[in-house]
Amino acid sequence: MEYQKSGQRIKNYVLRMRTHNMLTNLPREQLGECLITGLRADIREYMKRVNKDCLDLALASPEICFQAIINVGMDMENEKQREQ
Questions:
Q1: DSSP label at 39?
Q2: What SS3 state is found at 1?
Q3: Please, what's the largest Cα pairwise distance for the chain?
Q4: Do the beta carbons of residue 16 and residue 24 sit within 8 Å?
Q5: Distance (Å, rounded) from C-alpha 2 to C-alpha 37?
Q6: How far apart are CA 84 and CA 68, in angstroms?
Q7: How many Cβ atoms are within 10 Å of 44's Cβ, its own excluded?
Q8: For the chain, which has fewer Cβ within 10 Å, the N-terminal or C-terminal residue?
Q9: 52 or 48, which is more confident
Q10: What global pTM score does this model have?
Q11: Burial level of 72, CB count in 10 A (0-12/13-18/19+)?
């Protein structure tokens, strides 16, 4: 189980998880669960707030999951930068 570290960019987290998945080849449901569980809590909550179906859709396939997490995570990172 991998967790996104504080301050770690979402693209780096997803890249690391993709690499791990190439080695482990987790079943789709387990991969999605690990990806979402490993996200920082603020990004996970943002995903729920922005699109309630996003987490369910993300479990449809590994690539959809990776891309959904990158999209939402980058939106959040960009929003935080604008606020600063």
A1: S
A2: coil
A3: 40
A4: no
A5: 9
A6: 25
A7: 18
A8: C
A9: 48
A10: 0.78
A11: buried
